[in-house]
Structure formats: structure tokens, C-alpha cells
Design brief:
Elements lengths: L1 E11 L10 E12 L4 E5 L6 H8 L7 E6 L2 E2 L5 H8 L3 E4 L3 H4 L6 H11 L5 H14 L16 H12 L6 E5 L7 H18 L2 E5 L3 H7 L2 E6 L2 E7 H6 L4 H8 L48 E2 L5 E2 L16
Parallel strand pairs: 3-8, 3-9, 6-7, 7-8
Antiparallel strand pairs: 1-2, 1-4, 4-5, 9-10, 10-12, 11-12
Helix pairs in contact: 4-5, 6-7
Length: 326
């Protein structure tokens, strides 16, 4: 449905002096596919470029370089009207914090009807019926229609945000850490709701989180980002079960799990800057396998028989009894 080819996003930093300002390398040479009806999980530590990638996918951020293709057409070669009428309704967004994503002055009825009004969907009566349908879809009682976001709980606000994202019947939902601002018990409800909606509506989804275990539970495929680069990508069970990139292995070891107790990998060395990224592999300054080869150039992608892709000169070994090493 959406394909990213060689995406670069650079921002101007405040550092660097008056005559020449530094650049922040938010994304570097990212290539990904978002397929129809699947859940793609994006994981990585804070500042790795997950939210920037989400903004590129939703058309909120024009890349500095590279192409965003929507159904085979260059998104940014379309006119503004084509993007609004063709691309806009096809992609919905659920933001991280529902308390800031929803207008505190508007009642829920108006919040859910706004997308329908903007895109002139149906008659007034049809829009009111769609609002009631959306409320039922996310499991909220009818009396919440007249409430403002401040009168709702965190979980209810996030359900309203999800309902708003579904208003125009999109094919894809981009959810940027939709459970991080919620209590643990409410998180499970929202995750179950997203899973149920995916099954009932055939939705595709880009689910962004720093919680690998949550993404592991929800996603079909996982892409691991580090300092603006996709370092590993593939089926969720393969990436989390037998990761090939050392950073993925370290990320998994730092995630608490009741089912497994992996040996914790403690990373040493300087954390690289997005303003002055290191040469070669960006993870080499903290990687226990790094050598002089890693400093020369970013490794080309290697692909396994299972469709997994990774960028590493010294990938993790596949354990005996699993698929043969590539």
C-alpha cells in the first residue's frame, strides 16, 4: 500500500553557529513496505526516528530525499487536492497522548463528526449515524457523545481518538505509542481493541513502540530502528526469536518478560549524536562485535530465506536447531 525508498529526513539544528547551522539526521536511507492488512511494528529507543518515520508514512513530513509511493504513485508528485482526497482518507492516525490529541473544548460528538464534515461524507443524517456507529465500534456508551475529553478517563479518551481515526474508513492506521500514556490495565484493553478492529475491518496498521514485548504480541512484521536507520526487519517471530543484528539482541535483553530470562546485554561506549553520526554502522560505538570494517561504510542488506533483512558485518549466530545461517 505504501512503500518508502531511500528516505532521508534532515532538520536544521540550533547548533553550529550563525553562518552555518548543523543538521539533525532524523532518518537515513530508510526503505520499508507497509502492506495491506498487516501490522508493521516499529521499535527502537527514544530518538531513533520512529515518530519521524510515522510522519513520513502519514504524509505529515515531506522527506528531504527519497520517494514515498502510495499504491504505486509518488505521493509528493500528486497535487495537494489528490493527496487530500485520495491519500488523506486512506490513512488514519492515533497519537501518543489522547489528552493533547483531542480538542478539550469540543464534545465527543463534534470530535468524531469533524473528519466527516471536512471531507463532506454523506448527508447530515448519515454523518450522525456514522458517529453512533463509531462509538459502538470502539465500545463506548452513547452518553459519552455529549462529554468533553476532560470528563473521560484516559482509556475512554484513547478510544475516542481511535474512533476518530476510523471515521473515514481508512485502510491503514498509524498508531504512535498509543498505550504509553495509559495505566497498565487500560493498555491491555486498548491493545485488544486494536487487534479486534484489525480482524473485523481488515485494517493495516503501523504500530510504534519502545516496548518490544507489546510489538511482539501485536505485529506481523517488525522493523528495528537505530539512529535513523532500519537495522533489521522481518517476521515478528523471527526478529524477536532469532535476531541477527546485535542491537536487536541488546534491545530484547533489556525488555522484561515473564516467559523468558535472557542474559542482559549491557552496552558500553559513547551514545552517538544524530547531529554528528559516526561513520559506517551507527551502532559500532556501542557494539561488542565492532571492528575497523564496521567504521568504513554502512553494511549492505543481507536477506534470509524467511524474508528477514539485516545490516550487519558480524550478525548474531543462528542457534543450533533453528533455520540454517545465511
Amino acid at each position: 500500500m505504501i512503500r518508502l525508498d531511500g528516505i532521508h529526513v534532515r532538520h536544521k539544528a540550533r547548533s553550529g553557529g550563525i553562518l552555518r547551522r548543523d543538521s539533525v539526521y532524523a532518518l537515513t536511507d530508510c526503505s520499508l513496505e507497509v502492506r495491506r492488512g498487516e501490522i508493521l511494528g516499529l521499535v527502537g529507543e527514544s530518538g531513533c526516528g520512529k515518530s519521524t518515520l510515522a510522519r513520513v508514512v502519514t504524509g505529515l513530513q515531506r522527506p528531504t530525499e527519497g520517494q514515498v509511493a502510495f499504491r504505486g504513485r509518488d505521493l509528493w508528485a500528486m497535487s495537494a487536492a489528490e493527496r487530500r482526497d485520495g491519500f488523506g482518507p486512506a490513512v488514519g492516525v492515533v497519537f501518543q497522548d489522547p489528552s493533547t490529541a483531542l480538542n478539550p473544548r469540543l464534545p465527543v460528538r463534534r470530535i468524531l463528526r469533524d473528519p466527516l464534515d471536512v471531507h463532506r461524507r454523506g448527508t447530515r443524517e448519515a454523518r450522525e449515524a456514522r458517529v453512533l456507529e463509531l462509538l459502538d465500534l470502539v465500545g463506548l456508551p452513547g452518553h459519552t457523545l455529549d462529554a468533553t475529553p476532560g470528563q473521560l478517563s484516559g482509556g475512554q479518551r484513547q478510544r475516542v481518538a481511535i474512533a476518530r481515526a476510523l471515521a473515514l474508513e481508512p485502510e491503514l492506521i498509524v498508531a504512535d505509542e498509543p498505550t504509553s500514556a495509559l495505566d497498565v490495565s487500560v493498555r491491555a484493553q486498548i491493545l485488544n481493541l486494536l487487534t479486534d478492529l484489525r480482524t473485523r475491518l481488515g485494517l493495516g496498521m503501523v504500530f510504534i513502540s519502545h516496548d518490544v514485548q507489546t510489538v511482539r504480541y501485536l505485529a506481523d512484521r517488525i522493523a528495528v530502528l537505530y539512529l535513523g536507520r532500519v537495522v533489521e526487519e522481518g517476521p515478528a517471530d523471527q526478529v524477536t526469536g532469532q535476531s541477527r543484528h546485535p542491537y536487536t539482541e541488546a534491545l530484547l535483553s533489556a525488555t522484561p518478560s515473564l516467559l523468558e530470562r535472557p542474559d542482559r546485554i549491557v552496552l558500553h561506549g559513547p551514545v552517538p549524536s544524530a547531529t554528528h553520526p559516526p561513520t559506517g554502522c551507527p551502532f559500532r560505538t556501542r557494539c561488542w562485535k565492532a571492528d575497523d570494517v564496521c567504521a568504513t561504510v554502512f553494511p549492505a542488506a543481507e536477506t534470509g530465506d524467511d524474508g528477514r533483512r539485516w545490516h550487519c558485518v558480524h550478525p548474531q549466530e543462528i542457534q543450533l536447531g533453528d533455520a540454517p545461517e545465511q
